[in-house]
């Protein structure tokens, strides 16, 4: 089922959670909504599910207006962040729930339901858990049961809220591959919410980066990594070093910065900012430069150093230790930036916080 | 050479464990256990034949029957109304909610005699409610309905206060999950919400029933206390005591105690049953 969202807004009290969302998802596509907490990604997912209602905008699924349908009539599979398994029902009863509550006319017979549940449990590799209760399962097992319960009603759209958020790192990687397999086997249109870039890029066909109620960028991993569409995306993707530069004829220059590695860009002359990852910066000894090394450490493979300018600006640098020039604390250095995104200054970007956005820490 | 070290003793964070536990146990023994033991001993002195004669006398049987029937009516009413009350207090926001929540404790705090007096005044033939009901041919005061009314008044908080916390803890995403799976509102309630609060609800009803069987102060004003008609067991025990018939009083009290104990054990079994699938789900 293809999904078309247009002009969607939503506010809770005074906070504008969604500020005009336009998004198309093709039939059978696997899309990730990626963003920090408070970016509105879960709200958007819940609106598609019918668990929240927008203030304005349209939601069309396969040509049908879903804002006229209650959640129970949309036939979606929704996997909750903390699974929301029914604690007083066994795994088998949890998975059968969506079939048991169907109206009498459509409901399969008892034997058909049992067969369907058995088939699903075998498919999800949880058949040995059939008679256990949710409290007796591990996180990864609960995740599988939650997915089984959602898949039992053959949903037209599968929605997952932080599907791996509550799991250990090792189980996450396993389940990610497994979920991709499930998606390919069922062919359903799938949207999942995550704040973990690696998860989004590894799993999804397309990633939608959201920030503060807007879609900042839609694309594939390499696109978003190399060509962030906005300062927000650049920061979110780890380009935490932000420096003022001057643009002239498409080239950026800045005090103590070697920006010759950056390609020429079709940008207007004037003040601008560059966003770079610490790993894309090299410190080069230069007695005339205005940066000095203020701290220096090593992880064995990498040198981690902080370069400081007299006005207090600090830049973090991570460079391979092998082949690095001899550096010591207090040494004057120039910063050579291998790759960076450049954005001309505009009013909106000035208003944006200068502090780097930290990656959300998984609970 | 290492000198013999002093044995290591784990230190408790809070001091005085022995003292506080001792005080608690002493209090429990003095206030609860010794009176109950005395009652049981007194009952044992009577001897089985005499005990049975007292307990199975027509007047005593009638008193037990009236107490149990009225208690059952009151509990049935509280089971429905208490569940609704807890639901409203947890699930909806409205002005005066906190006040209503606080009012729920009035039956706990109000002297039961005061409750009995005001109920009698309201429901007597010339009271506000009584005059209307009397015109409709219904008499509440001096009937078993009056007894049930007084019991319902004093025991309603037990149902509300047991169901309320469980309902508050209930993860609303369970209901959302049921809705996305196609369940209608009544299916969500009967298959997801109700099973989750059922043990607490039953436990609350059991305690309310136990409380109803023992209620005295509120009932004596409204019941009329006619032997074989509106005389409750607790009152009969009191009358026997007034007549210096200690054995009669003790035997009836023992039966009441047995009811209370059975109900208390039942309530505890239900509570632990409630905890069985708890934890973990979130």
Automatic annotation (TrEMBL), chain A:
Residue ranges of every copy of the ABC transporter domain listed in the record: 3-237
InterPro entries xrefs: AAA+_ATPase, ABC_SmlMolc_Importer, ABC_transporter-like_ATP-bd, ABC_transporter-like_CS, P-loop_NTPase, Sulph_transpt1
Protein species of origin: Paracoccus rhizosphaerae
Highest taxon of the lineage: Bacteria
Keyword Acyltransferase carried by entry: no
Keyword Nucleotide-binding tagged: yes
A GO MF label: ATP binding
Keywords: ATP-binding, Nucleotide-binding, Sulfate transport, Translocase, Transport
Lineage, opening ranks: Bacteria, Pseudomonadati, Pseudomonadota, Alphaproteobacteria, Rhodobacterales
PANTHER family per record: SPERMIDINE/PUTRESCINE IMPORT ATP-BINDING PROTEIN POTA, SPERMIDINE_PUTRESCINE IMPORT ATP-BINDING PROTEIN POTA
Cited Pfam families: ABC_tran
Spans traversing the lipid bilayer: none
Protein name, as recorded: Sulfate/molybdate ABC transporter ATP-binding protein
Gene3D superfamilies with a match to the protein in the record: P-loop containing nucleotide triphosphate hydrolases (3.40.50.300)
TrEMBL record, chain B:
Subunit structure: The complex is composed of two ATP-binding proteins (CysA), two transmembrane proteins (CysT and CysW) and a solute-binding protein (CysP).
Upper lineage: Bacteria, Pseudomonadati, Pseudomonadota, Alphaproteobacteria, Rhodobacterales
Protein name stated in the entry: Sulfate transport system permease protein CysT
InterPro entries, per database record: CysT_permease, MetI-like, MetI-like_sf, Sulph_transpt2
Function: Part of the ABC transporter complex CysAWTP (TC 3.A.1.6.1) involved in sulfate/thiosulfate import. Probably responsible for the translocation of the substrate across the membrane. Part of the ABC transporter complex (TC 3.A.1.6.1) involved in sulfate/thiosulfate import.
SUPFAM superfamilies xref list: MetI-like
Membrane topology note: Multi-pass membrane protein
TM region(s), chain numbering: 17-41, 62-88, 108-128, 140-160, 188-209, 216-239, 251-270
């Amino acid at each position: 089922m293809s999904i078309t969202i247009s002009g969607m807004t939503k506010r809770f009290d005074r906070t504008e959670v969604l500020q005009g969302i336009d998004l198309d998802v093709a039939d059978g596509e696997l899309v990730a909504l990626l963003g920090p907490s408070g970016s509105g990604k879960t709200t958007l997912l819940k609106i598609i599910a019918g668990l929240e209602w927008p203030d304005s905008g349209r939601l069309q699924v396969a040509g049908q207006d879903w804002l006229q349908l209650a959640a129970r009539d949309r036939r979606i599979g929704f996997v909750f962040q903390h699974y929301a398994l029914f604690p007083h029902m066994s795994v088998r009863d949890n998975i059968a729930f969506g079939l048991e509550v169907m109206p009498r006319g459509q409901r399969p017979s008892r034997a058909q339901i049992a067969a369907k549940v058995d088939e699903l449990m075998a498919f999800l590799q949880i058949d040995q858990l059939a008679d256990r209760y949710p409290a007796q399962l591990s996180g990864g097992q609960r995740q599988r049961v939650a997915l089984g319960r959602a898949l039992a009603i053959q949903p037209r759209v599968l929605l997952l809220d932080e599907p791996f958020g509550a799991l250990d790192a090792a189980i996450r990687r396993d389940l990610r591959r497994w979920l991709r397999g499930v998606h390919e086997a069922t062919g359903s249109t799938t949207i999942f919410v995550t704040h973990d870039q690696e998860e989004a890029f590894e799993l999804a066909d397309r990633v939608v980066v959201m920030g503060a109620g807007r879609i900042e960028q839609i694309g594939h991993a390499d696109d978003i990594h190399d060509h962030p569409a906005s300062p927000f995306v650049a920061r979110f993707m780890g380009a935490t070093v932000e420096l003022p530069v001057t643009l002239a004829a498409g080239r950026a220059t800045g005090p103590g910065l070697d920006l010759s590695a950056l390609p020429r860009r079709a940008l207007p002359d004037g003040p601008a900012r560059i966003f770079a990852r610490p790993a894309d910066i090299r410190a080069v000894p230069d007695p005339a430069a205005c940066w000095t090394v203020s701290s220096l450490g090593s992880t064995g493979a990498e040198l981690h150093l902080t370069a400081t300018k007299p006005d207090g600006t600090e830049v973090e640098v991570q460079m391979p230790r092998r082949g690095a020039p001899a550096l010591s604390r207090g040494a004057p250095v120039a910063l050579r930036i291998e790759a960076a995104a450049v954005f001309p200054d505009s009013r909106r970007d000035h208003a944006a916080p200068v502090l780097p956005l930290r990656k959300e820490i998984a609970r | 050479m290492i000198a013999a070290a002093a044995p290591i003793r784990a230190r408790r964070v809070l001091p005085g464990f022995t003292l506080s536990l001792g005080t608690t146990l002493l209090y429990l023994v003095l206030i609860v256990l010794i009176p109950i033991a005395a009652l049981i001993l007194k009952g044992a002195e009577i001897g089985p034949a005499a005990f049975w004669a007292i307990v199975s006398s027509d007047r005593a049987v009638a008193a037990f029957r009236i107490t149990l029937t009225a208690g059952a009516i009151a509990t049935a009413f509280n089971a429905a109304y208490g569940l609704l009350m807890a639901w409203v207090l947890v699930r909806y926001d409205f002005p005066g909610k906190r006040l209503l929540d606080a009012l729920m404790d009035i039956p706990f705090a109000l002297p039961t005699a005061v409750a009995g007096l005001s109920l009698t005044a309201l429901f007597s033939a010339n009271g506000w409610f009584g005059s209307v009901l009397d015109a409709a041919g219904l008499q509440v005061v001096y009937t078993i309905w009056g007894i049930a009314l007084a019991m319902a008044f004093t025991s309603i908080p037990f149902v509300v206060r047991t169901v309320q916390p469980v309902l508050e803890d209930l993860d609303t995403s369970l209901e959302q999950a049921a809705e996305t799976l196609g369940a209608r509102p009544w299916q969500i309630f009967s298959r997801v919400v109700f099973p989750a609060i059922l043990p607490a609800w039953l436990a609350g009803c059991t305690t309310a029933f136990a409380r109803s069987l023992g209620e005295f102060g509120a009932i004596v004003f409204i019941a009329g206390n006619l032997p074989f008609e509106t005389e409750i067991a607790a009152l009969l025990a009191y009358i026997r005591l007034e007549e210096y018939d200690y054995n009669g009083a003790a035997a009836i009290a023992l039966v009441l105690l047995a009811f209370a104990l059975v109900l208390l054990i039942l309530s505890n079994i239900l509570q632990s049953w409630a905890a069985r699938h708890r934890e973990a789900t979130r």
